[in-house]
Amino acid sequence: MAWIYLLLAAALEIAMGLALKLNQGWTRVLPSAVAIAAALASIYLLALALRALPVGTAYAIWTGIGTVGLVAVGIFWFGESLTWSRVGFLTLAIIGIAGLRFSGGDAA
Fold it and tell me: What whole-number distance in Å separates Cα of residue 56 and Cα of residue 54?
């Protein structure tokens, strides 16, 4: 269950980042409210995941999924650049996230 909490927390981290992009410096009410709600829910679910998972592993995976997810949102939704170097570094991030997950020493 801890991994499910962590994945949901990471998804909410992506939603928060997207809402922050759309809130135009806290001037739009709905995206601002979504950003705050997503941030609080994400941290809550991360805390639940940390009951059973090592803090370093869980935090790195949480932020890593959020980072990769938001880069993908930026590329596909906002037309940000997609270069071979970005693909390479995103691939390294994904390998690192998977490596942490499967390297052993994890509870649950």
Answer: 6
